[in-house]
Specification:
mainly alpha, about 0% strand, transport, transmembrane, ABC2_TM
Length: about 90
C-alpha cells in the first residue's frame, strides 16, 4: 500500500513541476525505469556498483521486494541458488 502511495505521489509531483504533460511523462518513465532497474530484481543488490547503491536504498520497490522475500524465505535454512550463479 505504501509503495503504491509513493509512486502515486511521485507522479503527481512530476506533473506539478513540469510545464506540460509530455515533459512529465518523459521524466516519469525515465525516473521509474531507473528506480526499478536498481530495485534488486533486475540487478541483484550484490552486483550494483558502489556508486549506485544509494539508488537501491532510495527505491521503494526494493523495500517491498525485500519485505516480501524476507517474509516468505526468512526462516529457510537451505541456501537459495540463483539461476546463473554458482
Amino acid at each position: 500500500f505504501c509503495s503504491l502511495l509513493i509512486f502515486n505521489y511521485c507522479g503527481m509531483l512530476m506533473v506539478a513541476l513540469m510545464p506540460n504533460i509530455h515533459m512529465a511523462l518523459t521524466l516519469r518513465s525515465s525516473f521509474f525505469s531507473m528506480v526499478n532497474l536498481f530495485a534488486g530484481f533486475v540487478i541483484p543488490k550484490q552486483k550494483i556498483p558502489n556508486w549506485w547503491i544509494w539508488m537501491y536504498y532510495l527505491s521503494p520497490t526494493s523495500w517491498v521486494l525485500e519485505g516480501l522475500l524476507s517474509s516468505q524465505y526468512g526462516d529457510v535454512d537451505k541456501e537459495i541458488i540463483v539461476f546463473g550463479e554458482k
